[in-house]
Amino acid sequence: MVNCICVSVGVGAGGRIFLNLASASDDEDELELKEYEKMGGKNEGLSKLMMMKDFDRDDEDDEEYVKEVLDTAIATLEPETTRSKLSIFRTALSLLRLLRSGIRKIKVLDYDTYTNHPEFPDVDLSLMKMMDGAPPINEVLSPRKLGRLILRILKTQLALDTVLDGVNNASSQEEAYKACFTKPRIGWFGILPNPQNFLPPPYAVDNWEKDSEFARQFFCGTNPLMIEVAKDPEKQLSKNIVNHFGKNKLQELTDKNQLLFVSYDDLADLKVNPHQMFPLPMNDESGPDGGPAPQVHPKFFYAPIVAFTYDYDKDELDVLGIQLERTDDARVYTKNTCGENEWLVVKCQVIAADSNMHQWVNHLGKTHFTMEPHIIASYNTLRQARHPLYTFLRQTSRDTLVLNWAARGSLVKYDANAFGDYQSPVGVGQVMQLINKMWSRYSFFESTGLPNELASRGFTEDVQIPAYLYREDGMKLWNAIGGFATDFVDEVFDSDEAVASDEVVQEWAKETTDPDKGAVKGFPTSFEDKETVAKVLQTIMWMASGLHAAVNFPQYDEFAYVPNKPWHLRADLSTIPKDDAEIREWMFENMFPHINTDDDWLRKSTNTLVTDEHAAIDSLAMVHLLTTPSESCLDNLSDRFERVGREAYDKFLKNLNVISEEIEARNEEAEKANKAPYNYLNPSNVPSSIDI
Are 279 and 296 within 8 A, CB to CB? Predict the structure, then answer.
C-alpha cells in the first residue's frame, strides 16, 4: 500500500471545528468516491479516471496514453459545467482542453520571460524566468491526482447545494456569510456526525473580530512572512505612528524586543487604486452587447502600517495602532480612539492588503514561480544525465510545472475574466509588478533559507518569541531537512574533490545562474564542496515543502469565512457612516465581497464573465480546492529512495516523527484551551513539492 493523505474533521473544545490531515491507505479515494455517490453525487467518468494507471514518468513516448487520460478528465468535467454554478468547473475544463492541445514530447525545457501586461504596457516584467510553452507529457498530473481534484470540486458543489437555500434566505448579509458552511453535526441535539460536512465552519467564524485573533494570524496564519521585529522605530515606522505613541515609548518597547510591525510598502507604489474588476483592454469585448465591459466594479486597497506589542508573560501579540494611508496627516487608529465597528473596519482593510501580499507575492511568487527555474534547470541537467542528485530534487518538483502553467492560464492570465482581476483589488497587471519587484530583490540563500529570511525581519537567535509557531515549527523542519540533505550528499559523493570534478553538477549550477536561463541570483555559480551542495538541497526542499505548506494550507481556515480574510473590499473609509452603530451593516452590505447567489450566476455576455455578486462563493470554492491534501508528504517517501538515499531517508523519517509528536502534543493542549492549533508544518501534512 502507498500512503496518501486525506482530510477529516475534528471537533475541538467548545465545539470549534479544525481541519485535520491524516495518513490513509490507497483505497481511501475509493471510499471517498463511494461516499460521494451515496450522497447523491453522480459522475460516470470519475471512477474510470481514478482507476487509470499512472504514466511512465521516464517514457517520453507515452504521449497517446497521456492524451487518453486528459480526454477522460475532460469528459468527466464537461457535464458539470452545465449543471454547476461554480466558475471553477469552467476554468478547470478550459485548462484541461488547453493542456490536451499543448502537451508535447520534449527532453529539454526552454526558458521564457514574463511579457508586459496589456493594462501596463510600459512596465517591464521580464526579470523572472518561466517555462516556455505547455509542460512536457511526463509532468502532467496523474489520473489519480486529476480524479482527486475533480472529486474535491464535486464535493464542494454537493456541500454548497445543501447550504445555498440558507444563504439566500438569510436575514442579513452577515448571516449569509455564516450560512455558507455545512453543519458538523445533525439530528436531535446534534447527536450525529454530518456525513456531508465537506465545508466545515472554520475557527475564524466565531473569533475573527477579536484583536488577539487578528494579531495571531500574523504569526500563525496564511502570511507569517510579513511581520518584523522593530530595531529602529523612527526609521521603520511612519512619523505619524512615532508621533502618536512617542519615540521614547516605542524605543523602550524596541529595547525589550516587544515592538513588532508590518508595513505594506510595495502596495503603496502601485499606480491604479481602485482597480476595476474587468479592466480594459483585456475586456474590450466582454460587455453585455459584445462591447467593453462596464467599468462599474471598483476594488479598493490601502498600504497599511501596523504596530504590535508582544506580551512575554501572556505569550500573546496585540495591536498597538494602525495607519492606513501614506500621507503626512494620515490618521493613526487605535482601539481606544475608534468606535467598536470603526475599529473592525480598519482591521479588515489591513487584512485585505495582507491577503494580496500573501496570495500573489509570498505564495504564488516566492514559492510557485520562484521554484520554477530550479525545476527547469535540474530537469535539463541532472535528470537528463540520470544523476543521483535528481532522486532528491525530483521529490521537490512533482506537479509544480503544470500547476504554474495552469496558474498563468487562470489566476494571472492576461485575458478577459482573469481570477486575479475579479478577485484582487490590485489586478493581474499590478500583481505581476509586485512579483517582479520581489524577484528584483531576491537572493537564493538570503531570501529562501529560513534562518536568513527570519533574521532579515529581525527574528535573530537572541529574539525568542514562542508564539511565533511558523518560526518554531519551521526551524525544526528546516534543521531536519538540512540533516537529510547532508546525509544524502554523503551517500552520493565521497569527497569535495568528487563534487568539484562532477561535470553534470557544474552544468546544473551554470544553467541555474545563467542570466538567459534560470537567472537565479545568489545561487552558486559552481560547486566546490559537499557542504554547499547540501545547503542548496536543503534550501530547495524547504521552499517546496515547509515554506509552501505554511502559506498554502491555512487558506481554508482563514479565507473560507470571507469577513476574516477577504480577497478584496468594495469600499474604502471615504464612505463609512459617521454613526458607529450604522457601520456594521454598511460593512457587510457595501464593503465585503458580495454573497448573493439567488440571481443568475453569469453575466449575459460574450465571454460569460463571473459577476461581482458571486465573488465570495467563488473564493470559498477556490480555497477549498487549493487546500486539497497531498499524497506525497515528507514522511511517506520511502519508496522514492530505494536506489539511493535509503539510509539518509530512514534517519530523516525518525527525526520527522519526533517533530510530528511534538506538534501534535502541543495542538492537543491548544484545543483543550479552546485555542486554534497550528498543524500546517507537521511533517505528516507537509508535501515534498508544490503539488497544489
Answer: no
